[in-house]
Amino acid sequence: MIKQESKNRKNLIQKKNFLHTLKRDYPLWLFVLPGIIITFIFSYVPLYGVQIAFRNYNPKLGFWDSNWVGLKHFMRFFNSPYFASTIKNTLILSVYSLIAGFPIPIIFALLVNSFRHKKYKKIIQTVAYAPNFISTVVMCGMLLLFLSPSVGIINNIIELFGGKAVNFMGVKNYWRHIYVWSGIWQGMGWSSVIYFAALSSVSPELHEAAVMDGASKFQIVRYIDFPSIIPTATILLILNCGSILSVGFEKVFLLQNDLNLSVSQVISTYVYQVGLIENSVSYSTAIGLFNSAVNALLLIAVNKISDKLSGISLW
Amino acid sequence: MKKRKQKTKRTRADLIYDIVLFVVLTSIFIIVAYPLYFIVISSISDPKAVAGGQVVFWPVGLSIKGYTEVFKNSKVITGFLNSVFYTFCGVLINLVVTLPTAYALSRDKFSGKKFVTFFYMLTMFVSGGMIPTYLVVKNLHLLDSMWSLILPGALGVYNMIVARTFFKANISQELYEAAEIDGCGQTQFFFKIALPLSSAIIAIMVLYYGVGHWNSYFSALLYIKTDVKFPLQLVLRSILVQNESQLAQTVATAAQQAALEEKRQLTELMKYSLIIVSSIPVLILYPLVQKHFVKGVMIGSVKG
């Protein structure tokens, strides 16, 4: 009896509180309203639309009324010759990018941070951030210009030393290296910003104490600076592992040509080709959904492993 | 005695470290800066010199032929103007949507804080993907309209978190309470006090969103169908990326024709100038906001 009464009263108070806060906060609710509406339309409605992966999408019938076909489109993808090759290409490209590209910004940040000349340090940082602001199209244009067999500077240099011009974009063995290392060139500086932010919170007293104890500069970097950015690095590593099956579409698509397609067809470009060029909407959505599902599983797995090993996790 | 010895030992190790560091950092500096520098010097050199590989350290045979060629191209001009327009409108909408949301979520006492934060966080981890999003845009009849480039990304979750953290750190609850006593409501407080105190975060938002709009080509590739509505990046793609393969084919058949060769060189040169022209807006914006980067990332990475 008494319990019930107190529960009722609690509900009543909650209701009153809710109305009260709503009345108090209504300007703030109005502030968030436009964003909510837009995000609902362009993020949540497509999320609801994902079900067409299990249907034969018919534009007249819409998301809900198209025929239900279950896992048909998934089976078609698993059985197609593109399954193995797109997954292999995606995996190689993203693991290669991760292994080569992940440590470099960390090393760069540590080096620059321990550099003494303030002016030169600033110049290096400013220049290193700059490539990040080059658009993907321009970046790919630059690569094609530099690597061009007839007028590219790299082949000009090769010929200057008596070598023979190489059609870099035409040889599929070079493609992955070109993709990954140009990405590192462009992203290194910007990726290091977050480590600079982490390093700037290292207490200078720690450095002073280490100097007093006779630590060399290298030791300071090794034993003070480096450990201080490990938590940040771990979180970023987990996040990167979680997107291992999603290689960015834009750059791959722009650098693709008939000669390198066997190494450059990744899941996202295949989704684009199937869905928007060949118009198999449901099939394409199924491939995309499979991709996101694997990414989600990877993220959960890596997060768990990291939690067990180092106690650092996303949630 | 002992102490002194230790000290000299330390400085020698440090000296080596400093020298190695200098060499390594200078190498990195050259690797990053040289390609950018090369674009600049090539764009103002003679087409023949560029094609012949004579341009290495400084411009050869100064000419502005590349730039005149760029400005003769009506597609580039239209694309440039389109992009300016899309970017301006896009950033305006971004700010109108993002800043109030970020402010509201920065208020600890806001009753919707938990729900709205979760609402946005979820979209960072799951999304409908390319095709369902395309279908939504299509069903809303936004295909081939500038709204398809602006509305879907009107609120970037990452940018919103950065702005929210800024408001949280800089616009305190006490400040609001003081204003409230003087009869100021949330809306008035936001426009008259919070925003004027937040020029740093507005600058960062303008840069992030602005560069995003200026450089984006993927949504235009999906949604824009008419040539005259193409943003600059799509025009760039057709000149810088697609043109390449066509040229490679014509070279084989007509390599000996001098006139064609000259035209080809000029087209190649124009690409360098085009890269510079297309980067002008970012080049103007970059130095103004550069000093805020580390701060921007720092406040963004401290989640609260």
Tell me what the structure shows.
The complex is a heterodimer of chains A (315) and B (304). With 315 residues, chain A is mostly helical. Helices cover 76% and strands 1% of the residues of chain A. A two-stranded antiparallel ribbon of chain A has the order 1-2. Chain B is mainly α and 304 residues long. Helix content of chain B is 77%, strand content 0%. Chain B starts with a helix and ends with a helix. The chains are: A mainly alpha (315), B mainly alpha (304). Chain A: Pfam families: BPD_transp_1. Chain A: Belongs to the binding-protein-dependent transport system permease family.
Q: What is shown here, in short?
A:
The complex is a heterodimer of chains A (315) and B (304). Chain A is mainly α and 315 residues long.
Describe how the helices and strands are arranged.
The complex is a heterodimer of chains A (315) and B (304).
Chain A (H helix, E strand, L loop, with lengths): L1 H48 L5 E2 L5 H4 L1 E2 L3 H8 L1 H21 L1 H11 L4 H12 L6 H12 L5 H8 L11 H28 L4 H9 L4 H26 L6 H7 L5 H4 L2 H11 L3 H30 L5
Antiparallel strand pairs in A: 1-2
Helix pairs in contact in A: 3-15, 4-9, 5-9, 6-9, 7-12, 9-11, 11-15, 14-15
Chain B lengths: L1 H42 L3 H5 L13 H8 L1 H33 L6 H13 L4 H10 L7 H4 L6 H14 L2 H9 L4 H9 L4 H17 L2 H6 L8 H23 L3 H32 L3 H9 L3
Membrane topology (chain B): Multi-pass membrane protein
InterPro entries (chain B): MetI-like (IPR000515), MetI-like_sf (IPR035906)
Keywords (chain B): Cell membrane, Membrane, Transmembrane, Transmembrane helix, Transport
